[in-house]
């Protein structure tokens, strides 16, 4: 199972880099784009997770003795963000590999620029020929130095055993967690399930979380704190300043669930929600059931 997860991510890396290198006229531009990833593999009750970057996988679990003592859902994080400020191992790795570069960790970013310390792409943090494509960067770092690789796509791996206390799995990119904690995400899915049980929502689980994240962002970064004001912002940089792209997948487990087997999306795997800050949000983007949400 571990081999499957790791090999899937390594294969994607190899295919991506091979494609870029074979299209030389575009390889420097495309190869300097970056993306993070997380993948889970379930074999029986054994769940293996591999990730590179700051995407997260979270289990929503009922607490021990839930049937007797009650209590809400708790979050079990299967991943640890590959970021300098939250992952001591990544910080140690970079300092150890680049001992003569004081700015290798600056503003909690790699070389003061990149947040995730592991990712696909981001060629300038891996190969000098991609770095040299940008004259301004070569000039800026002429004194402090630039000695890639800093970033890798090699994943970390974690393992869990799924049991009767495990209600669901959330896979999402960092945009969901910009203004929400993992625990808040799990609690929100619990609220969704209750609303679905009472037939009070047309959302699926992923679009429910999407709206939750957008409302949290709107409350912090708009004048009125309203979702309408956030969605009225022009596409592109102006919107990106308030919230990041969001991609979410929610998977429910069937065993003895205290929640309804069928959700508004019509099954146990909620349709994904995919939001991009580069496009405007259609009026029906957060519904109807089963729709893919786009911003």
UniProtKB/TrEMBL annotation:
Gene3D superfamilies: PPM-type phosphatase domain. The keyword ATP-binding does not apply. This is PPM-type phosphatase domain-containing protein. Transmembrane segments: none annotated. Residues 1-18 form the signal peptide. Keywords: Signal. Residues 1-253 form the PPM-type phosphatase domain. Pfam families: PP2C. Residues 257-295 are annotated as: Disordered. GO terms for molecular function: protein serine/threonine phosphatase activity. It comes from Lotharella oceanica.
């Amino acid at each position: 199972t571990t081999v499957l997860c790791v090999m899937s991510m390594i294969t994607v890396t190899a295919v991506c880099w091979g494609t870029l290198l074979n299209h030389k006229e575009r390889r420097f531009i495309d190869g300097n784009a970056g993306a993070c990833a997380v993948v889970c593999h379930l074999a029986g009750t054994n769940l293996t997770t591999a990730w590179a970057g700051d995407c997260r996988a979270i289990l929503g679990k009922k607490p021990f003795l839930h049937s007797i003592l009650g209590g809400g859902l708790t979050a079990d994080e299967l991943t640890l963000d590959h970021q300098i400020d939250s992952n001591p191992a990544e910080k140690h790795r970079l300092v150890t590999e680049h001992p003569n570069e004081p700015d290798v960790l600056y503003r909690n970013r790699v070389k003061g620029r990149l947040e995730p310390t592991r990712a696909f792409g981001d060629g300038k943090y891996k190969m000098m020929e991609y770095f040299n494509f940008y004259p301004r960067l070569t000039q800026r770092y002429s004194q402090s130095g630039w000695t890639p690789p800093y970033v890798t796509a090699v994943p970390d791996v974690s393992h869990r055993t799924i049991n009767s206390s495990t209600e669901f799995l959330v896979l999402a990119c960092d945009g969901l967690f910009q203004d929400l904690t993992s625990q808040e995400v799990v609690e929100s899915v619990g609220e969704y399930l209750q609303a679905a049980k009472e037939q009070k929502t047309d959302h699926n689980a992923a679009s429910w979380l999407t709206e939750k994240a957008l409302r949290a962002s709107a409350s912090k970064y708009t004048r009125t704190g309203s979702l309408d004001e956030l969605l009225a912002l022009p596409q592109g940089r102006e919107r990106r300043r308030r919230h990041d792209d969001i991609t979410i997948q929610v998977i429910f487990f069937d065993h003895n669930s205290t929640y309804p087997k069928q959700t508004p999306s019509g099954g146990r795997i909620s349709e994904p929600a995919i939001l991009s800050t580069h496009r405007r949000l259609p009026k029906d983007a957060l519904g109807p059931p089963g729709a893919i949400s786009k911003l």
